[in-house]
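Hello,

Following up on my earlier ticket. Below are the two sequence lines again, exactly as submitted.
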Amino acid sequence: MNEGNHEHWSEEVAAYMLGALEPAEAAELERHAEGCEHCQAEIRWLTPAINALPEGVERLQPPRELRERVMAEVRFDAAPEEVAAGESTGLFGRAGAWLRELGSGPMGLRPVAGFAAAVLVVAAVAGFAIGGGIGSDEGTQTSTVVSGEAPGVTAKMVSEDGSGTLHLGNVKQLPSDRVLEAWVQRDGEVEPVEALFVPDRKGKASTELPDMDGVEVVMVTTEPRGGSESPTSSPLVTITVPQ
Amino acid sequence: MTIRREKAERLADEELMPLIGEKDPEAFEVFYDRHGGVAYSLAYRIVGEKAAAEDVTQEAFISIWKSGARFDRARGSVRSWMLSIVRNRAIDALRSRAGKAPKLTFDDDAALEQRPAEELTEEEAMRNETAGELRGALGELPGEQSKVIELAYFGGFSQSEISRMLGVPLGTVKGRMRLGLEKIRGELAEGLA
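Thanks for your patience. The regenerated structure is below:
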């Protein structure tokens, strides 16, 4: 490299490392530095100073929900791919029965319109073992059997060691006075899941299902802020749990 | 294939990355727990809004999850790589929000390229410094030096833009950046002595 230009480039190294050069300038400096030991040495020398800048920002505690969203997306991505629709009609049938029960039951829900045609994603991948699974010899179960009247909404549920995580996708933004609430059916009884949740800006929403023991069906509805003791709206999704 | 969390917690970042590259959620969870705080703090420092900082942090970590296999330890520490990704995405978000086309091409590979492998020992030592001490390093700079560094690193402004904003010659901005970084670097070296 042209060492005669070094003085000029040396002036630019600090700005380069701060990301303050225009792209063309940065590319030019990089080309120069490839053959300039002086510039390479300066970059090495200043690197700890650059690295100190983010370390020095005032520390804030990230919200717990952020961790949950990140890990929900990670676990969703790590879970086996959904299989084609139609492979789990038996499970779907159980979900339908529950919905019909809800529609005629004391909660006063009407049957979900077009329920039979409203299967958005139907998949069931059960019992695949992950070697050396985390604290469980039983491995992880992923089940996704979804029906509902919210077009495009997808769902996947990962169960492990008696608990589960439900991941929804393509959920429309909710009014500020509405939240998502999950429900489980166990021995024919419908119970609310304590945690309320909302979709993020990308339409993803996740919630923990701490006690999956004996759960046959999981459902998500939209409810007033603060949640409800029983479902007050038609389900966005219904997921049957392989037994 | 996943490993138990207890085992993952004993691994260095550089040892976690190959596992993350193999899509091990437990390894990634440990990685997030180690660095999520500083990542969120940096994102918030740049974008200035909690919701936007959350989005930036989430996008950065998901990017790392999806590209973990691309990390090359010969190019620097995992933490500095991760913070570079957060910083770049935060600056992009800042510019996008301002309706301003990004003037720099930030991508994760570029962040890798910009982080030489040297000084790892010093980086580890720096990590043990308190954030307050490091803030002090920037805070102890003369105002005109800390200003140009903050505008560039945390504001995403080019040296030409800073020159115009502050109404000072471009050469002055270059000089202040250089003097400021040199001083921070010198103080870090003293701290290690």
